[in-house]
Specification:
Helix content: 10-25%
Number of strands: 33
Structural class: mainly beta
Number of helices: 2
Distance between the termini: 102 Å
Strand content: over 45%
Oligomer: single chain
Radius of gyration: 30 Å
Length: 393
């Protein structure tokens, strides 16, 4: 009786030891597999991330803006300066002046604007009094004219031929769109009664079409419209006529539009549409929050983000709406500029210069906050920063 117990206990102890060894080996194997999987995933993420944010790597050159050509001024003064032509336009409530890059005045015009806004349209500069009653059109040589409106100005667009379309408020309709010729004479007025409130407008490259977006809020749901007018030169005046009208279902608002050749693109805050086969159709891209939209050599450059406090991105779409470039570029975009086949964007004290294919030609790191940028002759950039006006070659 005394010899059977030790044998039974010994067998039990041996079984326990075997189980512990088996458990330890299995746990070690699992740990190794988990570590290997984690390592593989990490390597893949690093490779993908390096490709994704290639444009966010170190700048090609570091530039001290104060050491560049131009002139210095206070920050409050710099906010009134808009790069244009071979200099800058200075806009105040009572005066508009075109200055050289050294600050010398080329010409000036007296105005009386409560809330002046300055917009550059190719060879032209339009300065208008937002919610006021007049605007001034300028080129590099002189101030062409100052025109007055009957109703308050809400938005403006200028064609390559110098035609001006003004969106105004109205007590009698939902709003008006007034067409001015190159001399500043009102030629045509369209009043919106059934299409809702005019929001934005744009000309095509030949100055033969004017697209107007409206939003109708009279019914139970918001209804967006895009109306297209044809423009022709009569014997003594410009003539404008209804050409087409488009709408889509859903509570959308077309905040901006642009023509690429004969193709019209319309943009909401988070989506993109085009007119195709006589219809306004949505293009299937995931743009959560659209920022700037520019046309560069018939390619669309669109900045967007995935939401509030997310990284800003730049997408480049070719004529067939295929994405040829899409990448994170930074956090805060301060300005963009277009010249022919070149596109410049200022973001987080970096200035990137792209060609029309989405390739980065230059990447500059600057030491000041940038307010506005624009191209000069010879592919130079005019930069208005917190300290003044500077040029970058």
């Amino acid at each position: 009786m005394t010899t059977s117990r030790p044998n039974k206990d010994t067998g039990r102890k041996t079984a326990v030891k075997t189980t512990k060894k088996h458990s330890t080996g299995k746990g070690l194997l699992i740990a190794v597999l988990v570590f290997a999987a984690f390592l593989i995933v990490s390597l893949v993420l690093i490779i993908l991330l390096s490709k994704k944010i290639n444009s966010m790597e170190g700048a090609d050159s570091q530039i001290k803006l104060a050491a560049q050509g131009g002139f210095n001024c206070e920050y409050s003064e710099a906010q009134k300066l808009y790069p244009y032509g071979e200099g800058v336009v200075k806009v105040t409530n009572d005066r508009i002046a075109y200055l050289t890059l050294s600050g010398t005045e080329i010409y000036t015009v007296a105005v009386s604007y409560s809330n002046p806004q300055c917009v550059v349209f190719g060879d032209y500069v339009a300065v208008f009094d937002l919610n006021g009653y007049s605007y001034t059109l300028m080129n590099r040589d002189k101030a062409l004219y100052t025109a007055h409106t009957t109703n308050q100005i809400k938005a403006i667009s200028v064609s390559k031929k110098g035609y001006v379309a003004i969106i105004t408020g109205s007590d009698e309709s939902n709003g008006d769109v007034v067409l001015y010729d190159e001399a500043g004479k009102a030629q045509y007025q369209w009043s919106s009664y059934n299409s809702g409130f005019p929001v934005s407008c744009c000309f095509d490259s030949e100055s033969t079409k004017l697209a107007v977006s409206t939003v109708n809020t009279n019914g139970a749901v918001v209804v967006p419209y895009v109306r297209v007018f044809s423009i022709s030169r009569g014997s003594s005046s410009l003539e404008m006529a209804d050409s087409a009208m488009y709408t889509v279902e859903g509570n959308v608002l077309f905040m901006s539009m642009c023509y690429s050749g004969d193709k019209l693109y319309c943009f909401t805050g988070n989506s993109m549409y085009e007119v195709a086969d006589g219809k306004l159709v949505q293009i299937n891209y995931d743009f959560s929050a659209i920022g700037y939209v520019n046309l560069v050599d018939n390619k669309l450059f669109v900045t967007y983000s995935d939401g509030v406090s997310q990284l800003s991105k730049l997408a480049v779409l070719n004529g067939s709406e295929s994405v040829i470039y899409n990448s994170d570029i930074g956090t805060k975009i301060s300005a963009v500029a277009v010249s022919g086949k070149l596109y410049a964007i200022s973001v987080d004290r970096r200035i990137f210069v792209f060609d029309s294919t989405g390739s980065i030609l230059n990447d500059f790191a600057v030491d000041e906050d940038v307010i506005r940028i624009n191209f000069l002759a010879g592919n130079k950039l005019c930069v208005v920063s917190a300290s003044g006006v500077h040029t970058i070659t």
